[in-house]
Write a structure and sequence with these properties.
This protein is of the alpha+beta class. The protein is built from five helices and ten strands, in the order αββββββββααααββ. The strands form three sheets. Strands 1-6-7-5 form a four-stranded antiparallel beta sheet, covered by helices on one side. The protein has a four-stranded antiparallel beta sheet with strand order 2-3-4-8, covered by helices on one side. Strand 9 (253-257) and strand 10 (260-264) form a beta hairpin. The chain is elongated. The two termini are 28 Å apart. 38% of the residues are buried. The chain binds zinc ion. Residues 245, 247-248, 250, 265, 267-268 line the site of zinc ion.
């Protein structure tokens, strides 16, 4: 499942191709993407494309004859991909779910497992997630401490809560805690001030570095051009069960917390 850095990569790479283009038509090929009524997008221009939480947000202009702007939030889930094409080759994709015909090319949504979703909003402000963006300047160490409060949830599970911080999943929650040298079993509310400081710094460093490397690729994730991310070479604990911790030499372990995999080093995460 793509997390914040992977979705950020998709949005950043797609934006230069589609922003400023007018939509000629939209064909929704998968009825599951019609769970919500599909508004009329033909004649509107794509004004912005960016990541919000774990979703790619597309902002459309008001229709040419007047009216309100529109926003679409695309959740890629497991295997959703947004593809840009100009030569007709990708339209033959077996798992094509939606097609935007744009002025000068096509924006395609392909999704093998069909868990991806489309949600339409009257404005981008309506599409904002409940949780905070971990890379926002508003998320200070103090604010992080306030969000955690006296939560008794273990810190790994807490980091996955999208109503608190958006965009984190198993990979980056595990990596962030290892870098901060904090055990995933610690009750979130038990973290001391210096530990919160380390958690805050580690969250930013880890996500920024992952974005610089276009995210982590195991099998399904590819960006708009089918290019794979390269952050997997920097992973310190994720998917390294039984391997040696580069910081302390102990053996990395995989445990299951709330039905989700956590990778950690029992030697240096306390
Ligand atoms: Zn270690």
């Amino acid at each position: 499942m793509p997390e914040l850095p992977e979705v950020e990569t998709v949005a950043r790479q797609l934006a230069p191709f589609v922003v400023g283009r007018e939509v000629r038509s939209l064909s929704i090929l998968d009825p599951r993407l019609r769970a919500e009524r599909t508004p009329r997008v033909a004649g509107r221009t794509i004004e912005q494309v960016y990541r919000s939480g774990k979703r790619v947000l597309l902002e459309f202009s008001a229709p040419p004859r007047g009216g309100r702007p529109l926003a679409l939030a695309v959740h890629l889930r497991m295997t959703g991909r947004l593809l840009w094409e100009t030569d007709g080759t990708k339209s033959a994709h077996d798992h094509l779910r939606a097609r935007f015909r744009l002025d000068g090319g096509e924006l395609l949504f392909a999704d093998t497992r069909r868990f991806g979703t489309f949600h339409w909003y009257a404005s981008a402000a309506d599409a904002l997630p409940d949780g905070m963006e971990p890379l926002s300047p508003k998320l200070t160490t103090l604010k992080l401490g306030q969000l955690i409060g006296d939560s008794r949830q273990n810190i790994k599970t807490w980091l996955l809560r999208q109503d608190r911080l958006v965009g984190l999943g198993n990979i980056y929650a595990s990596e962030i805690l290892h870098r901060a040298a904090i055990s995933p079993f610690r009750p979130a509310g038990s973290l001391a001030k210096d530990e919160l400081k380390r958690l805050h710094a580690s969250t930013r460093h880890t996500l920024r570095r992952a974005i610089e490397n276009c995210g982590t690729t195991f099998s399904d994730f590819q960006d708009a051009q089918g290019v794979e991310g390269s952050y997997q070479q920097f992973l310190a604990v994720y998917d390294r069960d039984g391997e040696t911790c580069r910081r302390c030499g102990d053996s990395i372990r995989r445990v299951v917390q709330q039905q989700r995999s956590t990778y950690h080093c029992p030697g240096c995460q306390v």
